[in-house]
Every structure is written in structure tokens, then in C-alpha cells.
Amino acid sequence: MTNQAIASYLPDLLVIKLGKDLPAFNDYKNPRGLVGPHEIGYFFHEWIHFFHNVSTIHGLSAFANLVHLWGHARYAMGEDGLCRGAPSISNQENTWLHQKFAFSRAERSQRQNNAPGNIIFENVTVTKVELLEFPLPELTVTTQIIKAELKIENESGEFFDMSVEVGPHEIVESVACMLEERLTRKLGAEPRPLEFAPYHLLRALAKKIAPSITDECVLACGLAALQESDPPTVLVDILKRAEQACSAGEDVMHLINETLIRLLSDSKDWVEERLVELESRFPNDEPMGRAIKSTVEVFRRNFAHRRKNPLVEFWLVDVIKADVNNLTEIIKVFGDCTVQQQRDGFEDDVGRDILVEFVLPENDDELLRDGRRRMHAAFRFVALHAGPGGKLLATSEIPVTRRNVCPYYTTCVLKPRTENPSVCAETPWLVRDEQCWYESGVLTLCTPDVAALRVSTMPQRT
Hints:
By secondary structure, the chain is of the alpha+beta class.
């Protein structure tokens, strides 16, 4: 069974998805919860993704990028409430959108590492590691990736060569895997085996760059790299300095902790400027504005925690190990999150899945929940307009396919979903229902006049 089948995380929606094989919240009135070390570990792995989304420089950069994409795309919206594409906006706006779309893809996308799933980590020798410039399509801006050359022994004792690339996605997945393993072992069980790529690529790099440091120190190096907008740019250097410290007999964890204290201190003003800028885009008290501001407060609170305890993840594992019931409170304190629970049935079954909220009492706000759904739908709608090279497509140019499916397709029970499921699955921006979260997300991109016109022409409920 793959990791995706058990649980996954949707970073642009801040949603944890639990598969039907992890039925923790199937019965929303009387949920059975997480049972045993492995289920707790699976869930923790995905929640750590959420936590890194809202407590790291990498996560803040990605979230700000989504908000900026939303802001730039608004200029291209037509009188019908749909996007008119690149020709409708200025060259400057098009350049910004190119950069934002390209950055989003670079930061979120998995590298195309066609590594066999049965590779045994101990049978991997890393022969070369290099940091490469990764140009963004049609732009002068570049990011960086790490390329590693490997020699691998297969089950027959034969050797073959291959190369892998490590970008932000691979670093994020590697540290989540290592934290899941750490928690599972502390709860008295052996971790599940996960594929070599992307889950063990951080360890693979450390094999070559920092072979003397402990697994705990490798994990700490990966966590430190996330306090950078483009984590690969600093990971190699952090691993090298950790190896040098180990060879000199110094305390490697102390070095990494001090490095993080400096990084977080140096970035404090930058972080606050980004957060204030995001808040300033939503001066009115309306649902999506509440969602953005609530998320900004989560960032602000979590960065404050990190400045006191830069490697807070190690503490979190120990707190859960002491009492697994602490996990619920941790989730509430470090950021309200949404869980989508898959239940038995087919994808087209109406209301197959349910949404579960973990929130602090002061955030148990219907307008805020509605705002989050609008925000996520708006981000998803904008992302569908990313054409080749980051060109802004018109909505009419988006290929009609189930890849466009509304993020709430499996949880929705509204009339459009029951009567016209193909629209919700393939062209959800055409749904016209005042209670539809996707429609509400599209409306956030429209001018007040256009939004009012769309609302006035919606079918009346009977």
C-alpha cells in the first residue's frame, strides 16, 4: 500500500487527507480516532507537512506566493466573472504571473526521479553530489536543485547507476518521513518501509556529504534548510558544516540549533513585513479576509514558538510519546487544520467523504470556516490557469478534464453536485449556487459589480 493510499497532504489547501484504510473519523459523531503507533505516525507525518507550511520561511514564501497569484489574477477577470487570459493584462502583470506560477511549480513539484520502489537504502552508494541552477521557464530567475549520482546494488548482487534530483519537495518529504519514524519507534513499533525516493533522499545526501553525523543530526539539518525560501540552496552547506563540526569533536546539534537561532533572528523583520503585507490586502471583515488573517496569525504564533525552540519538532515527538492524547492539543495550539476523511464508496458517490476541523475554541467561527473554503477554492481556480511556461490561460482555454475537479467534490451534497456531477468534476467554475464554496472562491476574484451580477443571475432556491 502506498503512502498516498493511507494519507496525504494538499499544501495549497492546508488539508490533510486520510484514506479509507485509515478510518479515524469515519463516524463524525463518534469518531474512533487514531489507533496504535502506526496510525499515529501516519497522521503525524501529514500534520508535520501542515506545520511546516505555517512555521517555516519556505512555507511562508509558498503561501505568500499563492496570495500574490490570486491578487495578480484578479486583473484578468472579465465581466462574466471568468479569466480572460494573458492578452487582457499588461506585460508587467504577465511577467509577475509567469514568475509566481513558475516559483509555485518549482517549490511544490516532485522531481522526476524514476527510482525503483524496492531499493534498499543500505545498498546505495552516493558517488557525487552537486548543486545546480534550475532556470524557471522563459524567465531570468533561477532556483536550485541538488543532483546526486548513485551506484545501487540490486537483489541479484548486480550494480547499476542512476541519478536523482532533490528539490524542496524531496527535503520536505524526507524530514516528515524521519519524524514519523522517530515517533513510531518512541511509541514502541517499527516504522513502515517507504520508497527510497523521495523519502530517503536527505539521508542519501548525508551519506556522501556528512557521513559521520547521526541520523538525528541529518534530520536537524533538513529542518534548518526549511528556514530558507529555496531549501536546496542552503542544505548542502549546512550538511558540510555539520560534518566539519563532528570531525572537530564539536556538538553538532548545538551548531545546528545556533544556526537556526541566527537564521530566525535575521529573518524576523522580513517575516513580519511579509505577514503585514498579506494582512493589508484584506482590509474588510469578510470570509476570505478572515481566513487569510487567521492563517497569518498562525504563522506569527509559530515563528514565535520557533524563536524560543528552533528544533521544536523533536519536542513535539517527545510530548506525544509521553501521552498520545497530547496530539489533539498540539494540533489546536500550532494551527487549526482541516482533515478530509475518505470513506467507503466510489469517487462519484455524493457525500462519500467528510471534513473534520481541529480548532481552538476562539477560532470555531462559521464565517472563518467558510472563508477557508473560499480561499482554497480560489487558489485552486487560479492554479488551473497556469499554462505552458507560466502563461496565464483564459478560463475558456482550460482543457475540460477531471483534473479540474472541485476540491470538495467528494464531500459536497449540494443540488448542483447531485444533479450535474460532471460540471463539478470538470468545469466547477460554471456551477451557479450561492452555497457553493467553489463559486464563492471564484467570486473573490471578481470586482464587486461583477460579483453582484453573478449572484443576481444565480438560480433561485425553491
